[in-house]
Amino acid sequence: MAKAADHSTINSTNGQVAIGANTQSVIAPPELEVVNMTKRFGSFTALENVSMTLKPGTLHALLGENGAGKSTLVKCVMGFYKPTSGEIKINGQVCPVNSPRDAQQYGIGMVYQHFTSVPAMTVAENLVLSRYDNSNVINWKQEMEGLRAFMETAPFQVPLELTIAQLAAGQKQKLEILKQLYLKSKILILDEPTSVLTPGEADEVLGLIRQQVTAGQLSVLMISHKFREIMAFADEITVLRKGNFAGNGKVKDLTVSEMAEMMMGEKRDPQPVEKSEHAEPAPVLQIQDIHANKDNGLEIVKGINLTVHSGEIVGIAGISGNGQRELVEVLAGQRPATGGQVLVNGEVYRATRAEMYKHRVFVLPEEPLRNACVAHMSVAENLALRTFDRPPQAKGILLIFKAIREMAVGLIQTFKIKTPSPETPVGNLSGGNVQRTVLARELSADHIKLLIAANPCFGLDFAAVDYIHSQIVAARNRGVAVLLVSEDLDELLKLSDRILVISEGEFAYESAIAEADFATIGRSMAGH
Amino acid sequence: MALNRSNWRATAEAIAIPIVAILFALILFGIFCAFCGKNPLSIYGAIYSTAFGNWRTFQGTLLRAAPLMLTALCTALPARLGLMIIGNEGALVMGGIGATIAGLMLSYGSLLPNVDQVKNTLGLPSLTVQIGMALGGILFGGLWIAAVGALRHYRAVNETISSLLMNYIAIALLNHLVEGPMKDPASLNKPSSFPIPDAYQLSNISGTRIHYGLLYGLIACIISYFLIQHTTFGFAARTAGGNVKAARIAGLPVGKLTVIICFLAGSCAGLAGMVEVAAVQGQANGSLVAGYGYAGILVAFVARYNPLAAAIVAVLLGGIINSGGALQRTFNMPDATVLVFQGLVFIVVLYSESLYGRLKIFKEAEVKAPPPSAASTAVPV
To answer: What residues have CB less than 8 Å from A60, skipping those under 6 apart?
Structure first.
């Protein structure tokens, strides 16, 4: 209770300060040292003998490809995993961290890649919940006052009354960061914090965190794949490769290609995409006046019309929460449309299995573990989700396990999925490898006609991003119609033939990519 | 899928935890018996010898296991689809009603036969009548639980609550029928329907006092296992049970799957009701509500919703139920003592659910075993 009162007085007396309490406290963040950390999962070594130091008042970036061990390292620091060997030192003293609560007590807070809020509870409840304190009674009036004051000064706003389930990915990510700001952690660990933010939002968030760091109020350890952000905001980097330490250094002494070399082991440039022209594009996907509701029953998609032709990538840009998620869910068969219809190849499409097979429709949804995988079923079974009821994987109604396994082994090799075995539950794999599993399933089929992709590169390292981009473009060049919904504007500008901006459930901008005007797109996204 | 290197630990875990849980419940029950002033060891001995001691008493165990196998499937099948259905008792009762109606109609051509009709039955072959009764039980029980599934999918009604409440409706319906529209005027003390003629009742497996219901149970368990693990339908159901969003993206008809699985689940319990009518009671009356439905939930839990394991667990629990009479006679303990035991097993097994994935011994080894030379000198700790 005292905390909340403290909070509101600070904010009322000093409203201009971004995060009120921090300016008044003079305690500098402690030094965090990781010494010879090793973590094994069964016979799989995720992290081997890695050491690093997070100096007080610095923004330290942790770089590495998918499965390099970045998430494992920070989860060990947070007490989420118990390291096989190695220790954590805070200000030179060995501090065993056995749980996230221990970490919180040392002033370490983390924003996880997977969201950690309670879906059924409101934003306000989640914020209060995140505070480990001893009071048994919650004075909601006071808490809400404190939270409102906090929100006013926070770098970005999330409606306090909404439940988490109603938030889009971008808003959830913002809330996760807000939570740590609210808890006044001195060491902030960010696991790809900007992957669902627009570049503008990302700069705003990181800029604000940077201010705190520069003022010596905060140390930040950030997992990131975006060199632009690292160059602009980080002081130092540590690079991991395949679970091993691969290098470190000060950002001002390094170039992007040097960092990339540490990460990849060799120099490489992003591969430019090559597009071929198609003579006779035919309409494949026709969206006619589609309406859909959010989870809370309010209309979010308000009459969308769109045609995607064969051999064309149509990109939809927009700030998260403007109806693009619901639109994709309608197209993927996960959400009923409240009005309008979808045609594929000129026929009405209701996303049944038979129609998907007939028209060869495939989907790469966002958050693949939540949207496209069964966590406790094996990698092989998840890979077979599209094909299990057809020969050779089924004979009549019988499953042919041998065929399922054989296909899985092939796909695991082709798509370089890192898994102990095809029988491992897919939920045990790292985020990037879950994504590869879904990619393998959705992109490996013959004769894809229509591909619907939503944030397909969310949280992947740039080698994987290049790979996915080349796969999408290759599909397009084969004549596949691609609808690409993304919150990464660079990705859209790189891949799309035509770009549209969705704002408040309607298209606010449309242009061929050659004539696309960056400034207008930005304004349309912001709703101007 | 076949046992292989990467999942043998999971298999061992799924077997060891329920067994340890049952042993623990046994110890708790022993403490309870000690408080009642009885020697727990001699009670264990009595339970064992009445349940599994010799062929004669073991037949009694199998008799009680037969309906348990069927009612367990009523919880186990929907559980694979992520539904927790506990309407086993109601589905059994509905199945009993359905079987009785079919049996009476096929025997006499009427639910309330007059003296002439009783004397001159329709004379259909007994197999026809029995198949008719089985279909009646399957249909009534199946539709009963299918309604629960439909409510769940189309109206988002919690399936656990609705199936529980539908138990009471089914029991009330049974009481209404046997005390009114279907009442045999001859059944004064215990309102019942007209009896199914002896000729049409399920006979015993030759040389035993076990009726063919046991065979129904075993076959249903094997078919269910096969259906879930080895067919495309089972794959689709497991997918929808694991993540409904993934199932939708794959275009699987989640609503249809839900209703079908629920129908199959209810039809198994309904078949148990038919067995009770056709082999044990010979007519529909309050004795159908004997707790086999609720005990079936327990069986499904202990078996971790695996239909094959359910068959084995049903025999175990059948033995415990079977020993109730012996406890009463030999130790002068109330008949309900076995219910205490059942309850303890239930609670301990529910608790043991929380142990999965937490025991080190069942996790994949993190470090390779040390070389033998080091092991030989190591001091055990």
So the answer is: A52, A54, A219, A220, A221, A222, A234, A235, A236, A237, A238
Does any CB of chain A come closer than 8 Å to the CB of residue B11? Answer: no
* C-alpha pair distances (Å), A452 with each of A346, A348, A491, B242: 17, 17, 15, 23
CB A55, CB A29: distance < 8 Å? no
**Pair of tokens at residue A414:** 């082709």
Chain-chain contact of B238 with A423 (C-beta, under 8 angstroms): no
CB-based contact, B373 to chain A, within 8 Å: no
Residues of A in contact with B242 (CB under 8 A): 374-377
pLDDT per residue over A293-311, tens digit each? 987 777 889 999 999 999 9
Cβ(A364)–Cβ(A357) under 8 Å?
Answer: no
The letter for the amino acid at A343 is L
Q: What is the rounded CA–CA span in Å between residue B297 and residue B291?
A: 10
Share of chain A above pLDDT 70, in %: 86
Q: What is the CATH number of domain A58-82+97-264?
A: 3.40.50.300
Q: Measuring CA to CA, which residue among A381, A356, A427, A386 is closest to residue B230?
A: A381
Q: What pLDDT is attached to residue B5?
A: 47
Subunit contact B253:A353, Cβ cutoff 8 A: yes
Q: What are the extents of the domains in chain A?
A: 58-82+97-264, 268-360+448-528, 369-446
Burial class for B309, CB neighbours closer than 10 Å (0-12, 13-18, 19+) = buried
CATH class of A268-360+448-528: alpha beta
Q: ipTM greater than 0.95, yes or no?
A: no
